[in-house]
Every structure is written in C-alpha cells, then in structure tokens.
Design brief:
Membrane topology: Single-pass type I membrane protein
Structural class: alpha+beta
GO molecular function: ATP binding; protein serine/threonine kinase activity
Organism: Urochloa decumbens
Pfam family, one: Pkinase
InterPro entries: EGF, EGF-like_Ca-bd_dom, EGF_Ca-bd_CS, Kinase-like_dom_sf, Prot_kinase_dom, Protein_kinase_ATP_BS, Ser/Thr_kinase_AS, WAK-like
Largest sheet: 6 strands, antiparallel
CATH topology of one domain: Transferase(Phosphotransferase), domain 1
Length: about 700
C-alpha cells in the first residue's frame, strides 16, 4: 500500500471509533472506561483492550489467559496504566510440617500482548517464617529435559521464635520484599521446602505482587488465614499490535493510534510498543479524533500554572505579563511577584537614604529614651530623699539595674507586704535578701520617709530586721532587708501547712523574750523615741534558727519623728490599742498592748478571731474570770506537765497586764522582757512552780481590760 494512503486509513479508523462512541458504555461500577478500552470488541480498540462488565454492571473485569476474573480498580490513559487486584499465593502446613494446601497465584494478563506488570510501581512480598518464595513466569520448554523461566525473583524470611517479627519492618524477619524486573507478562509463585514443624505462630507462607507503598507488614498477617485474598497491582499497557512497534515504525503503519490533533507518540519503557499523550498545553484523550486533546485554559488554574501578573490564554500555552509600570527582578512573572518599576540608581539611593534615615532616627529615639529614663530616675532619686540618704554609711543605695539583677527581674515572689509584693533576691556575695516596696513618697512625706530610713538604718539589734539598703530610682522606693528563712510567726502558728512544726514551750518562750527585747531596744536604746505601731505575729519574722526579727514598722511610717499623735489610725484589727484607736495617741504602751495579744497567741495557738466569731482576748478573760485559770485555753501540745501549765499561767497573767485598759497600769516593754527572762531562768533552774517570778498576785489584781 502506498504511504499516501496511511493518513486516509487513520482518519477512517478514527471516524469509525467516533461513530461507535454514542452507543458504548463509558463506565462500569465506579470505574471509568476511556477509549481505547471498551466494553465489547466494537467499543474498544480491539483484543486486549476489551473490558468485561459483570455482576449486573457493578464490576469491571480484565480478561486473562487463565480464565480468571481479574477485577479492575482504575483505567488510566495518561499515564498508560491499569490498576487490578491479583491473588495472594499461599502454602499452609500442619504441625508436622506437611503441606495441607497450596495456591501458586498463577495469572496471565497478556493474552494479546497489551500489558506488562509494572516494575516501577510494584514489588514482590513474602510473609512467613522459614520461608523462601519466588515469583516467576510460566515455564518454557528448554532444549534439554528442564523447563526454564525468563525471570526468577524472590527472597527468604526467617523467625527465631514467635516474638522475632516486628510490626512495620519487612527486612527478612517474618517478611521480605524485592523489586521485580521490567517486561513481565505473567506470574506464578514457587514456594521452596523448608522445615515448618511446630510453627503455630506462622502456619502458612504467603507471597504476592503489590503496589509500592500499599502494604505495611503486621505480625498478625502471619495468621492471615485467607483474609487477604488479593492485592492491588499496577499494569503498564501500550499499543503493541503483537509486534515490536516503536513510534517511528508505528507512524508509517495502518492503525496508528495517536489520531487526535495536538497528540504525540511516546515509546514504552516497559517492553516494546508505544502510547500516546497530549502535547504540552493540551489535555484529554489522544486516542480520539473528535474532542481528543483540547486546549488547557491555564489562566483559570493558577495553582497548576502560576501567574503573578496579567494572564492571557493561548492555544497550547498562556502569556503572563506584569501590568504597565511593573516588573519582576528575574523577568518571569510566573515565578515571582511584580513590583513597581524604578531606576536602579534611584532605587539604591532611595534605599540607602531610607536605611540611613531609619538608623539615625532609631539612634536618636534610643538616646531620647535613655535621656528621659535617666532624668526620670534622677527625679525619683531626689523625690525619695536620695540627696540625704546617700550620705548614710551603714546602708547601700542600689541602682535600679542592680535591683533587677538582685531579684532576677522579680522572678521569686515571697509574699505580699503592706505596700506591695515582697521578692527574694541574692547579693553579689551570695547573701540572701528580701526586697519590698516602701510607701509612695511625695513632697509632703519625703521628710518622713527619709527619717524612717535613717532610723531603721540606726537600729542594729539581733531581734530587729536589718535594713541593708534601698533603691530610690523608682516611683515607689524599694527596701532591701536581711532574709528570714522561716517566714513570719503568724504563718508558723496558724497556717495549716506549718501546724505540724514542733513549737515547744521553750521555743515559744524564747521567741516571746527576744521579740520583747527587740521592742525594748526600739523604745529606749536609740537616740530617738520610736513606736512600732503595728506589733503582731505577721510582723515578727523568724530566721533559720527561729530567732525573731521585728519588721514592718507600719504606723511609725506615718508619724512625724518625736510626735505622739497621728491623723491616720493605722494598724491591724485585734491588735490595735483601744486608747490609740479612740484618740490617735500612739505611745510605747500601745506596742505593749499589741504584744500582750501576741503572748496570748503564743500560748493558745489561736488567732485573735477564731471559730468565725470568738475573740481570743475576750474569751481568755472570760475563762480567767470563771476558772481563775487560763488552762482551758492553752495549746495542749505545750501544756503537758504541771510545770508547763504553771509557766503558761504566768505568761497568760503577764499578757493580761499588757492588755489593761488604763495605759498607766500596763508594764513597759523592758519590764515585760525582764519578767519573761526571769520566767525562763526559773524554768531552767527548776524553781518550784516558777512562782518566784510573779511581781503581782494574780488573785489580788484587777482583771479589767
């Protein structure tokens, strides 16, 4: 036949195919059937491309030489591939190792030379213990007495015991896998004879071809028991026409398949033959002349065909340009955003100018902030009395930055003081300190605050919390004190978590004596008359050895030095001297009254208000009046012996004297400290009943408060 007739023949075949299309089914179940495939010879390209639609039109099946039903899961034109389900081969054994069932999984999908098992998309897997299996083609007759195979690929698995195999690992323990060569047309599995005695954990060997990435080994699969009868496998297909056709040869022969305009021919990489595809910029079915490969409108598919400018579709391609006045650095708006056009020199100059301007502005702003901050700190320093306090020799003036370093930016909160949080800190010499806020200072109170710091700096006594320094560069001055590791007496006495601490009578007596000594020092041992004004257990701190430290000079902050009156009655309810509360007249005997309440809390271990409405002072007085003794109120943990009770009676009586309503009837702090020390000496030396320390008879004195 003349070569001039080939195009005419191709067009004739295309016309025939096109005429058949309206009558042909294009779907079977969930599987699309694109040409050159078809249901029936008239609807497909010919033998090898026919698809059977069975089970009332629900299942697509690929005919095979072995007459097996090979279910089709997917038919693809581009790329040329068919996804099918192929059977799993198996060999099962009894407890003695004898074979009781065998299925070699033989299948031949290449009755007309169209298909090859894909080497790129499948692999061969073997499951079992003491197993060796091979995938091979059907045997061919050799010249001698033995058959031969065109391919032979397999692997060996082994298990030491039932626990050897691991989920997810297919590396020769319970599972092995190998790649397969190209060009395979059929498949049969060969199992080798290895011992299988008493291997109940792996009663069968399994072998199968499977799509790469589809199968993950599980130990339970060694007991598959036929639950997986097939696996997905990809087949490559091509136009082979029972010969070794290439594109170059096929174009000059009748029946050339690539008949759509804008289609092209590609040589098969898995066996001889060729397949067709649409040229770049087109999509569709290259095997159909009508509506085969059609133009792709790239502009409506920006994810696949990006354009960061103005997109215009063309036949087989598209044009992407930046809009007027814009450009890209690389010149390709399909790869990067369009930006406004600008001369390079001007752009560089502008960039340098902007950068320099921003740098200068940033430096200037930083300098302004630093100057403002420095000026602000100087204002705080002066407002808080820094010009006077910096002359003191026995305290240190800390800067704001030093204080941040000491407290690690206030990272460790100890609790809340009268004027704000209290923080734990560490000095450079590893001394642990407590940092707390003082009062907010203004011009009216500047002198008061300055005097308070001076007074506290001069009070050097083992039972008064030591002021180590202060920071004046902040709005509210911060005071740095020595650290009391055991917190305050109120928490030790009354906090649920602390009630388990062993607070013996002797320890409580020591705390009372040393607290009284600290107050005595304040009242009489300095060159100024000082009143604390807020004596209570919460303001008695305890160091690591339970040595008490008087702290938080509450009301004294609000007094002018050497004055007795204050317009502000400040203190804690339950501890305030009634005379001070009524008149605003704060005296040293006001501290004595408050200390009397502290003594009651020490011996009773009850707060000033307990059981919601009971007043410790009133209840203690009532018990004394009724029973002529306070033993019913004493803490049972320390009222153990008769001597203990007598000592507690004496402390209770002293507390009652401190709480007398008439100020002149109260002892001063020096007398209180001395009487407590006499009581401790009497207890230490065993004076009978400790009665020798009593100055006034309890029974003859008035009990009025």
């Amino acid at each position: 036949m003349s070569s001039a007739l080939f195009p005419l023949a191709a067009l004739l075949l295309a016309a025939l195919a096109a005429a058949a299309e309206p009558e042909c089914l294009t779907k079977c179940g969930n599987v699309d059937i694109p040409y050159p495939f078809g249901i029936g010879a008239r609807c497909s390209r010919g033998k090898g491309f026919e698809i059977a639609c069975v089970d009332n039109g629900s299942t697509a099946v690929l005919p095979s030489v072995s007459k097996q039903r090979i279910p089709v899961m997917n038919l693809s034109v581009a790329p040329p591939a068919v996804k099918v389900m192929l059977p799993v081969a198996y060999r099962c054994y009894n407890s003695t190792g004898a074979t009781i069932s065998l299925f070699e999984g033989q299948v031949d999908v290449n009755s007309h030379g169209v298909y090859r098992i894909s080497d790129a998309r499948n692999r061969f897997v073997v499951l079992g213990c003491n197993s060796e299996a091979f995938t091979q083609n059907s045997p061919r007759k050799g010249r001698g007495r033995y058959d031969y195979y065109s391919y032979y690929a397999g692997c060996v698995t082994y298990c030491l015991d039932s626990r050897s195999a691991q989920d997810g690992r297919c590396a020769s323990v319970g599972c092995c896998q190998v790649d397969i060569p190209p060009g395979l047309t059929d498949n049969v599995v060969s199992f080798q004879d290895w011992p299988h005695n008493d291997m109940e954990w792996s009663p069968c060997d399994y072998a199968f071809l499977v799509e790469k990435g589809h199968y993950t080994f599980r130990v339970s699969d060694l007991h598959m028991d036929g639950s997986r009868s097939s696996m997905p496998v990809w087949l490559d297909w091509a136009i082979r026409d029972n010969g070794s056709l290439s594109c170059a040869a096929a174009k000059n022969r009748t029946g050339y398949a690539c008949i759509s305009a804008h289609s092209e021919c590609v040589d098969s990489v898995n066996g001889s033959g060729y397949f067709c595809r649409c040229k770049k910029g087109f999509e569709g079915n290259p095997y159909q002349a009508k509506n085969g490969c059609t133009n792709i409108n790239e502009c409506i598919r920006p994810k696949d065909y990006p354009c960061y400018g103005i997109c215009k579709d063309t036949e087989g391609s598209y044009i992407c340009k930046c809009r007027p006045g814009y450009r890209t650095i690389s010149g390709d708006p399909t790869k990067e955003q369009c930006i406004p056009k600008f001369p390079l020199e001007a752009r560089l100059a502008l960039g340098v100018g902007i950068s320099l301007g921003m740098f200068v502005s940033a430096v200037a702003l930083l300098l302004i902030v630093m100057i403002f901050h420095k000026r602000r700190m100087n204002e705080f320093f002066k407002k808080n009395g820094g010009s006077v306090l910096q002359k003191l020799e026995n305290i240190k003036i800390f800067t704001k930055d030093e204080l941040k370093k000491i407290t690690k930016n206030n990272s460790h909160v100890l609790g809340k003081g009268g004027f704000g949080q209290v923080y734990k800190g560490t000095l450079e010499d590893d001394t642990v300190v407590a940092v707390k806020a003082s009062i907010e200072v203004n011009e009216a109170r500047k002198e008061d605050f300055t005097n308070e710091v001076i007074i506290q700096s001069q009070m050097i006594h083992k039972n008064i919390i030591k002021l180590l320094g202060c920071c004046l560069e902040v709005d509210v001055p911060m005071l740095v004190y020595e650290f009391a590791a055991n917190g305050n007496l109120h928490d030790v006495l009354h906090d649920e978590a602390s009630r388990q601490l062993p607070l013996s009578l002797d320890l409580r007596l020591d705390i009372a004596i040393e607290s009284a000594e600290g107050l005595t020092y304040m009242h009489s041992s300095t060159n100024r008359t000082i009143r604390h004004g807020d004596v209570k257990p919460a303001n008695i701190l305890l160091d690591s050895n339970f040595v008490p430290k008087i702290s938080d000079f509450g009301t004294s902050k609000l007094l002018t030095v050497d004055k007795d009156f204050t317009m502000f009655v400040v203190g804690s309810m339950g501890y305030i001297d009634p005379v001070f509360h009524k008149t605003g007249h704060l005296t040293q005997k006001s501290d004595v009254y408050s200390f009397g309440v502290v003594l009651l809390e020490l011996i009773c271990r009850k707060p000033t208000i307990y059981d919601e409405s009971c007043s410790l002072i009133i209840e203690f007085q009532r018990v004394y009046e009724q029973e002529n003794s306070g033993s019913a109120m004493f803490d049972k943990d320390i009222a153990v012996t008769e001597e203990d009770v007598l000592v507690l009676e004496e402390i209770g009586w002293l507390a009652m004297e401190c709480l007398k309503e008439k100020v002149e009837d109260r002892p001063d702090m020096k007398e209180v400290a001395e009487r407590l020390m006499m009581l401790r000496r009497a207890r230490k030396h065993g004076i009978d009943g400790a009665s020798g320390v009593r100055v006034t008879s309890r029974r003859s004195a008035s009990m009025e408060l």
